[in-house]
Every structure is written in C-alpha cells, then in structure tokens.
Amino acid sequence: MKKFLLLIILVVIIASTSFSQLFENENCGANDNFIGNIFKHPWEKNNELLLNYLDTIGYKTDTFKTFYIVPVKFWIYRKADSTGGLNEKEIKGNIQYLNYYYSLNNTGIQFYLNPEIEYINKNKYFFMRYILQGPFQTFKHKTKGNINILFVDKLELFKFGKKVKDYNGTFNTISKGVIICSKTSTSSLSHEIGHFFGLKHPHRHWKRGKRKQESVDRDKRFHRIFNHKKNCEKNGDGLCDTPAEPDLTKYSDKNCKYTGWNVVDNWGVVYKPSTINIMSYTKNRECRNLFTKGQVAVMLKTASKNKYSKYWDINSAKSVNYKFDSFEPDFSVESASEIFIGSPQNHTFHLIYAKKKRNRSLDKEDWLYFLNKKDGQVFEINISSGKLKKAQLNIEVYFENNLIEKKSILNEKTSNIKIINPKKGKYFIKIEKISDEKSITDYNIEIKE
C-alpha cells in the first residue's frame, strides 16, 4: 500500500513538471513530455484534419462566433491574516483579459467567473512550492465542470533546499488545474488555459536532436521506414502554422523583437519565429496576443471532447441555463461593469454550474456604474425585458455610497428611473433578481440623457 501511495505521489509530481525542464530558463511549468503527450492525436500526423474539423462545425475566421462558454473557478491564496492576494478589481481584470485574448483571435471560446470565489488563508501556500505543494493543491481545490485556477503570490522551484527560480504559472496534466501568480502578464492566464485546451509550447524540444526537434522548413519530412510525415506535424507543438522557434525568453527583447539572428535548427536553417504567439516564451510577455488557426482548432476540438462540454456548448440543451453575459463578473461594487450613456447593454442571470443539481447556485445580483460628467445633467435609466424569460427585479441607484433611488420591477415590460439635478461623479446601479426560480432571465438596460 505504501509503495502504491508513493507511486501515485511521484506521478502527480512528474505530471506537473518535467525533470528535463528544471535546468532550463522556463517560466511556465506546464509539462511538455508526460501523460498528456503519450497518446498522440490524429492531427499530429495530418494537420489537414484540424482544418476539416473547423469546416464541419461552421467556423469562419472572419466571423465572430461563440461555440463554448466555460466557467472558471478562482481559488485565491492569501496570508493567514487575510491580506494579500487578488482584490475584486484584479479578479475582474483577469477575466476581462482572458476573454479579450480569446475574442481577439476568434477562438470560439469565452469564459465567465464562478462567483463563488474561494479564499485560502495560509502563509505556507502564499509562496507556493512548485513541486512539493503545487500539484497537491490542484487536486485538493477543484470544482467539477469548471477550469480551476489557483492564484498565488509566488510559485517557487527549490532544489536541494535552495530556491533556483520562480514560475509565472503552470498547468497540471492530471488534475487539469492551473496555478498562476497574481502579479504576472495579462497574457499568462490565456497561456495556461491554452494548455488546458491541448496546446503545447512552440519551442517544445528545441534543444533536442533531429528525432525530436522541429525543423524550420515546413515541408521537411521524416525519412524512416514507417514514417514519412511532416516534421512540423509531429515535433514542436505538432502544428505547422506555428513556426519553429527556440526559447524566446533568450532570443527576444523587451520591445518584442527577435534577437536570435544566428540561431539555427539541426539542419542549419535560421529560425524565423513569431514573437507574439500566446504559447511562446517571449521575454516581454505583453508581446503575446496571437493564437493561430491551427491552435484555435486544437482548442475547439479539445473542448468538444471534454466530459463537461455539454454544459459549455451554447447549442446544447444542457447549457441553456448557464448562458452568461460578457460583463461578468459584476456581482459587487468592486467588480461593477461600466455602462456608457447612450449605449444599451443586455445582462443575464444564470445558474452556476455544479455537477450535483442541489449544489447549483443562482447568479442573482449585478452591479454597474456610469460617470456623470456634468452637474445638473438629467439622465434616465431605462430597463426592459430581454429575449428570454422576464426577470423580476429590485433596482437601486447609489451616489457616493448613498442610496438615492430605489424601484422594483414586477410585471412591467419596461420601467425607468429618472435622476433629477444629479451631481457630477460616479454612480452605481445594483440590479437584483427577486425570484428564486432557477431559470435563465435577462434584461436590457440603457442610460439616456
């Protein structure tokens, strides 16, 4: 029994790291060599299968279309006295940037925050040990059906009792959990979730021999008895539309320019990498803003195979009650979404996914804010029913923490609140769903002068 337990512990640790990486200047601890890569995917022999898959699902590069809406659960590590860790403004920023990068590249995947944020107040995990603590924390703190993201202040690698490096984040291939540092680049979370959806580093095995290294030449093939496939479909990240590259941490500058002009692959060909791919290791992580079409296809295909995809797929009957709006999270003053005068918005109240029905909670509160730039500028808040089932609402308007207007909408299709002689400043609107029925409802809101 003890031997079996030790074996399990070893597997968990190896799944989170590759010992060949411990001596390299890596900043993402996600493993490129272990369990997730033992079983090859069909497209790693023929990338054309990825493009065919995109055609079958109706994907269009120039048309924005969402296929999956995925809940993410945040686990925030703080000190024992509850200090440190992400605040609500930073939490919202992480979701906004995540959706920004995945929308920018038309990935077909969007995310919403599970509002049941968990806080772990323990000093020993605030600076988390990459090998001895990280893997076990991803197993301990997870909610099924969500992408679980553990935010720590530091993720540290120790060797023989001495710290040798810090990681920005990592993805555990067994638990499917993400650990990421609170203070890191805006693209780092998108990078780690790229691993969740099956993406590898473009520089994978770049220091290895001809059997492992990806060639710069996109048409180079293996010349073996049973293998005449393209090198770029098997080595590197297995995608031919991401150029072969070295570790760009060493060969790019803070201005996102490539500096490895004399670095060649094992066939003597000079590298010509992209310095903006989200899965790369550019020195300045803010350079990264690109997913290629092949990477998008891998993520969509991986999402479709996930056992919870029926709850994420917007066309699935099981996902209808989990439809979110793009303004989430907006469940508190600190995470309030801005609404601009004259620009209408549509918001939803939806279920928060949990595998057991009795554990599913309801999103019942939205917070918005707007800026009034002139004293005495009269404005009116109009709220109307959306396309889905009409919500019964309580509406409260605040200025400088003072409640100035309150109204309930029960049976009306449209209602308005007029603010007379308002002062210049920031106004908050709290919109609360009154009923407890667990069906999706939505409303439209617009502020008019």
Please describe what this structure looks like.
This protein is of the alpha/beta class. The protein has 2 domains: 1-322, Collagenase (Catalytic Domain), CATH 3.40.390; 326-448, Jelly Rolls, CATH 2.60.120.380. It has helices at residues 2-16, 35-38, 48-56, 88-104, 123-126, 134-140, 188-196, 231-234, 293-305, 309-312, and strands at 68-78, 109-113, 118-121, 127-129, 147-152, 154-159, 162-167, 169-171, 178-181, 337-338, 345-349, 351-352, 361-362, 365-372, 379-385, 389-390, 393-399, 402-409, 414-419, 425-433, 441-448. Strands 1, 2, 3, 5, 8 and 9 form a 6-stranded mixed beta sheet that branches. A 5-stranded mixed beta sheet has the order 10-14-20-17-18, with no helix packed on it. Strands 11, 15, 16, 19 and 21 form a 5-stranded mixed beta sheet that branches. Helix 3 packs across helix 9. The chain is globular. The protein starts with a helix and ends with a strand. Mean pLDDT is 86; it is low at 13-26.
